[in-house]
Amino acid sequence: MQAPLYIVDAFTDRPFTGNPAAVCLLEAPLTDDRMGRVAAEMNLSETAFLHPYADGWRLRWFTPLVEVDLCGHATLAAAHVLLARGETPPGGLIFHTRSGPLKASDSGQTIALDFPALPADPADPPASLLDALRPDGAALRPAAAGHNGTDWLIELSDEAEVRGLSPDFRALGAQDARGIIVTAAAGAEARAEEPEADFVSRFFGPAVGVDEDPVTGSAHCALGPWWAERVGREQVTGRQVSARGGTVRVRCRGQRVTLEGRGVTVLEGRIFVDDR
C-alpha cells in the first residue's frame, strides 16, 4: 500500500530553512509500530500522520524515537499540505490530536494555528541541566527559569549567550523533561534576520530523539506567554536561532495561543507503508 508523502519546511517562506516535517496522508490508520518505522525512515524531527476523522482529520506526530503529544511545525506542515490540495472548510481545518482539537486556518499571508497555552511557572533548574548546557565548565547563570510540566525554559541575559551554547546532548537527554527551551531578548543579529523579533530561542530535545530542533512551534506555547508578560503585549514574535532558523508569531489569548507561520513544500512523492 502506498500513501502520499510530503516534506514541508515550516515556519519559513524559503526552502531549505525553517523546520522540515514529513506529512503522510492516509486513507485509514496505521499501527503505532508502522508509523514509528516510517518516522524512523524519514529521520526528521517529526513526521505527521493524517487520515479523515469525524469533522476533520486525525493527526499524530512521531519523532524517530517516540510519539509526542504536541507539535507545532508538523501541524503547520500538515495544514500547508491540505490547503494546497484544496481542503478549505469554512471554519478552518480541524485536527483531532492527543492534545485535543486543534484548528488551522489560512489568513492569506500565513497559516494560523490555534494551540493550548503552556506557560512556565518559575522554578529553579537542576545544576546538572545548567552544566549540560555549558559542558566547557563556564558557569551558566540564568536571568530567570521556569517549568511547564513538559519543558524547562531558561532565560539568559543576551542573544549571544543563546547562540553560543554547545550542549552535552547526552547529559541533556538524561534530564526529566521533553526538552529544554533557552531564550533571551532579541538583539541586533536577530533583528537583522527578522526585524519584528522580540526574543530568540533554541530548543534541545535529545530525550525524544531530537538533539536540536530547528524551529519548535510547541515551545512557543510557553515562550509566547513568557515574553508577552515581559514586553507588555499580547502579540510577540520569536526568532529561533538554530542553524536553519525560523520565525514564529504568537498571539496570547488566555488559555490558548495563536501561532502563525508559513510553509514551503520541498518534496512530494509516495511511500510504501505496508509490510513488503
Describe this structure in words.
With 276 residues, this protein is an alpha+beta fold. It has 7 helices and 18 strands. It has an 18-stranded mixed beta sheet that branches. A hairpin with an 8-residue loop joins β1 and β2. The termini are close together. The model has no long low-confidence stretch (mean pLDDT 96).
Short description:
By secondary structure, this protein is of the alpha+beta class. It has seven helices and 18 strands. The chain starts with a strand and ends with a strand.
In CATH, the homologous superfamily of the largest domain goes by the name Diaminopimelate Epimerase, Chain A, domain 1
At CATH level 3, the topology of the largest domain is Diaminopimelate Epimerase, Chain A, domain 1
**Overall form:** globular
What is the rounded Rg? 18 Å
Q: Based on helices, strands and strand pairing, what is the structural class? A: alpha+beta
- Largest β-sheet summary: 18 strands, mixed
Strand content: 35-45%
What oligomeric state do the depicted chains represent? single chain
Distance between the termini: 9 Å
> In the CATH hierarchy, what is the class of the largest domain?
Alpha Beta
List the total number of helices: 7
For the record, the CATH architecture of the largest domain stands as Roll
Q: Could you name the ranges where pLDDT drops below 50 across 5 or more consecutive residues?
A: none
Strand/helix succession: EEHEEEHEEEEHEEHHEHEEHEEEE
